[in-house]
Design goal:
13 helices, 3 domains, DNA-binding, 42% helix, 434 Repressor (Amino-terminal Domain), homodimer, six-stranded parallel β-sheet, Rossmann fold, 12 strands
Chain lengths: 370, 370
Amino acid sequence: MNVRLKDIARQAGVSEATVSRALSPSRSSMVRAETLARIRRIADALGYHHNPHAQALAIGRSAVVSLVVAYTEDYMMNVKALRLHSALLDAGLQAQIIPAQSLQDLGSAEKIAASLLLSAPMAVAIRSLATNWHLELLEDLCGILWDRGVYTLIADHHQLPSDAVPADAISTDRVRAAEAAVSHLLKLGHRCIGLLASADQTFGRIVGYRRALDEHGISERYEQPIDQYVEYAPERPYLSQAVQAGYLAAQDLLRRCPEVTALFCGSDLVAIGAMRGLANVGLSVPADVAIVGFNDEPWCSHLPVPLTTIGQPVEQLSARAAEMLRARLAGDDSPWRRELVPMPLIVRESCGQGLVGPRRWPVQEAVESS
Amino acid sequence: MNVRLKDIARQAGVSEATVSRALSPSRSSMVRAETLARIRRIADALGYHHNPHAQALAIGRSAVVSLVVAYTEDYMMNVKALRLHSALLDAGLQAQIIPAQSLQDLGSAEKIAASLLLSAPMAVAIRSLATNWHLELLEDLCGILWDRGVYTLIADHHQLPSDAVPADAISTDRVRAAEAAVSHLLKLGHRCIGLLASADQTFGRIVGYRRALDEHGISERYEQPIDQYVEYAPERPYLSQAVQAGYLAAQDLLRRCPEVTALFCGSDLVAIGAMRGLANVGLSVPADVAIVGFNDEPWCSHLPVPLTTIGQPVEQLSARAAEMLRARLAGDDSPWRRELVPMPLIVRESCGQGLVGPRRWPVQEAVESS
DNA sequence: CTGAAAGCGCTTACAG
DNA sequence: CTGAAAGCGCTTACAG
């Protein structure tokens, strides 16, 4: 059997209560220095470990933060989840990961909460759930958890929850980022700017895109939803789907609207697909068409034409999220926070030096290819 | 406060013990049907949930399986981890993920065990830890956990533990796979076969490579360790590193040994890098050089020259691992298992129809490029 | 600064 | 089939 407080108490000739105090970081100051040292020495010698269940039962909560993450096979999603986990560790919190997938099928917020509470977390951090987790479900979940005494943080969801929801929330500023991307193209002289975005990117990409056009007094829009080209079947990786979607969507759009001279793509994968698609109809980047991506995946700067894109401030978001969590657990009871982290526009070469005139080459017939 | 057994007992007019039995899947048969129904109805009405800490304290262990996974940003690693998690759920087990990274820094097996036991898992499944977790560390860990009453399963580690280690283990048969890949090339007539592998792939790739050559009575070897080109700095993704490594290694090897007509690559990423590298010195695939990859990543079949490679039997391995775990928890006390899952050779076009003669083109000077 | 005692919510022989 | 009671290992007012 494992060593218990009682065993240490007996050897040290003190009560269990004293040992409990001595071995608790926050209450060890109540114990006389000499006694403290003796107890610690004996605990070490015996190889003592707290029994987390007994501790949690007595205190009323466990010491662990559950990190609910949407683990798709998508590169960016994975990186973000890993970074947030690291940040929690850095903040001195013990964290375990619950893949959202395992909760998704449960359906109701009530059932999801029940499942989460099975591991009796001290707090729950939710990292950008799959897009089919609607905001209302998430909001309900926060309410239920809060009622059961568990604090929730929503990190990097595509929408911030309403102010009334009892949870902190932090996300990247997708709208501003999209606005900056399109503004960048407008400043380079482009007037007919295509948008290749999927439905789950609606909130950020499309709103920002429209906002930038509105600001510049441009009304015509060239939006190409790529959903029709994408199947998010779980056994197929997001990667190849997105590339293929961009490949087809870019060609469709340029064929339909040959006046388009620039593309803002919902992701870098879509962007490289679009580049291939453009090449397939005889258009080159950036001479004929300028391209902006989204995410700044690591290979973006290594492309034949390095990609101008929007960066993901993963470190900042993770660090801030962890700090909010830590503060709440330490007793911070200020009003619920709603924070947005700016996303940088990273200018490389895929937008060239600016639009210098009408496109030199007409859109060719697509070559047979995949 | 939450609903407790006591609350239900009072409303139902029975003792806590009866409620406890009624609400336990395995002991509910001890309760009279009528009483059972009444208790269940009341529990539902009150929204009762077991307190996992109290339960775990009373029973002596919790109901959750900790899944320790090496979460690198590598695609294959991520996929494998996700699949194993799903398989555990499918086997009716509640599983939480502990990123190995959070344990890695602890150093000693004793400390890692202590940290793992903090969440007092019912069992621990370890999925191919990072390569710097030496087998001995892993073996020690299993021993400590076992002594503390926790069963361990080692899934997909590159080496199986020794028979004495108190744990089950299942891995893919990397050695056989490498042997099959090289045999395939030998059968196609190749005699000078290069190997591009990194140190952490040593166990499988190199052993299998040598074994195939030995079987065919060929002694000369062309091994190119790619480690020198790869830096596994945690903030850089494995992806771009591996491609670049293959790019450089292939050129180096062909320059040094121009008689080489085939390459067996440690991963598909290395393989596509190698393809680019070969193109850079004027060699084409498969006409001049045949290539075999490893992993069968989803884009392999979409390359200009679809890649012949080794497939990862992720589903089989995950399902079998989950089944072993489930059986052990159900009381299976047969001898510790050591299982290997075969990996399929997937023949596409990167090895052509066979070697038809000496290479048509000499190796050119490398073009300036990256 | 320390101890005796009650309590956290559940399970499980034991006795009926 | 059911209940009274002890116990899992820890914490925390309360009293000294």
